[in-house]
Amino acid sequence: MKILHVPLSAFVLAALAACGGSDDPAPTPSDPGPGPSAAQSCGDLNGRMIAKSEIGKPTSGAVVQSATLVKADADGNANGEYCAVRGIVMPVDPAAPNLEFQVNLPTAWNKRALQLGGGAFNGSLVTGLGKYPLQPADAKAPLAQGYATLGSDGGHKSSAGFDASFALNAESLMNFGQLSIKKTHDVAMALIKARYGAAPERFYFIGASQGGHEALDAAARYPADYDGVVSNYPAYNVTMLHLGSLNAGRAMYGNGGANWMNAAKVKLLTDAVYAACDPLDGLKDGVISNVAGCDAAFGIAGVRATLRCAGGGDTGDTCLSDAQIAGVETIASPYRPGVEIAGMTQFERWPILEGALFNVSSYGTVSQPANPLSGKEALLYSVGAATTKYIITRDVNFDPMTLDPKTYETRIKEVGGIMDVSDIDLAPFIAKGGKLIMIHGTADDFITPHNSIVYWNKLVAGKGQSTVDGFARFYVVPGLGHGFGPFNATYDALGALTGWVEQGTAPGVLTAIDANPGAARMRPMCRFPGWPKYKGAGPAGDAASFACVTE
After folding, report:
1. N or C: more exposed end of the chain, with fewer CB within 10 A?
2. Has 444 been annotated as catalytic?
C-alpha cells in the first residue's frame, strides 16, 4: 500500500476553506463610480436587442424581456442588490423553440462571471440565483459573492421527467448537445458589457450531471471563453451513456421479467455488499472507500455464494434467483454496443456491487416496461428509452427493448458528434491556461464513476501526467451518489478553482463536508487514484483521521 503523505496543516487549511467557502474573504467589488444609478442602468437593459452578429453560433438574435432591480432588502433575497435580466435567444428555424436565459448583474460586481449548467435533458430555466451543485450549505451563493451569474433552459422547455421530445427538431437538439452553452455565454457577455462598460476579468463554468457535460463542453468546444470549469459527475458522453443506461435497464427486465428485482431484493443485495465491503477502509461507517478491495472481496462470485436461492429459482425475498443474478452481472459488467461513438467502443460497469444504493435508478415498480412508458419503470431504462425513441430512431412508437445499435449505426455516430465530447481535444484550453476540476462519487447509480475514470485515464495517456497535473484535478469521492448518497459530499469548488486560476494555487487534497442531516463529518477528497483510509485512531468525523492511499 502506498501512502500519500499530506501534512495535518493541509487538512486544517482545507477544512477552513470548505467551511468558509470562497466568500471568505469576500471578493473586492467593483467601484461603479459616477454614472447612472443601479436602477437606471438595470432598467436601460429592458427590451434591449442583441444582434445575431454578437452571438457566436447561428441565431436570429436575442431580446431582453425583463430587467428588474432586486433590492438587497427584498423579501427572500440573500444575494444583495442585483439586476435580474431575462430574455430569449431566437432560433434560425421558426419551428424550433426559443432559448430562455437569465443573467444576474450584482450592483457590487467582483468583475467575474459564473455560468451554471443544467441537468437531465434540460428544459427548465437555470436562474443562477442559488448555490452551485455540491456547494457547502453555509457558503454564500455566487451571486451574493459578487459574481455575475447566468444560466438557460438549454434551448427548450420539457415536461417533468426525461422528456426528449424536443430532440425531434434538429436545431433544438443542437442547442441541447452543444450550442446553448455558447449562445448563453455570448448574450451574457453583451449584457455584462452594457451594464458595467467592461467584460469580466474571469469567466467560469460549474455544472453537474448534464451540467458536468456542459462544463467539459465549455472547455473543449469554447476554450477561449472560459478560464476554468468544474465538472461534477459529468454526462460527457451522452449518447454512449444513454445506450449503457438502456442496456442496464434491459438487463433488469430480461428473461421476460424474471431478471427484475423488487425493493426487498435490491435491499438484500445492497446490504450484502456493505456487510462485505464497508470495513475494508478501516472504519465501518456506511461508506465504502476501498472499491478495489470490495471488488476482490465480494463481486458477482460473492453474490452467487451468499445470496443464490437454492436450486436457482425465485423462492422469495431472502435470496436471488439465477435470472436475477444474471441481470446484476450484466449491470456490473462493461457494455459494448458494437458501434464506435465519438471515439468510444465500450461503456463501463455500474457500481451496483461497489456501494451504489440504486435509489434514483432503482428497479422501478413493474417487472416489464410499458411502451409508451408508464412512469413506473426503472429510471436508467427510462432515460435510455427516451433517447432511443426521440433522438436515435426518431420513432415515438419504437420499442426500446428491441434496439440493435448496429442497425442505427449511422445515426448513432451522428448523434455522438452532436452530444458527446469524449473525442474532443482539450489542447486549446490547456494552451490558454484554463483549469479543470472534475469529481465523481463511487456510489453514483445514475452515471457510473467508471465512466469518468475512463475519461481521465484517456486524458493522462494522451497528454502525459505532468501536462495533466498542470491544468486538471480529478477526485473520486467515496459514498457520493448522484447529488446525494451515504456520504453526501459538498466542497468549495469555486474557491479551489479561483485560487488556482487567479493565485496559481493548485488544489491538492480538498475537504468534503457530508450534507446528510445530522452527519457532522468530513473526509479528505483524495486526488485520483487515492482514497481515504481510516488511520485507526481519531474522531471518525474528522478529515485528519484519514490518510489518502492507493492500493
Report:
1. N
2. yes
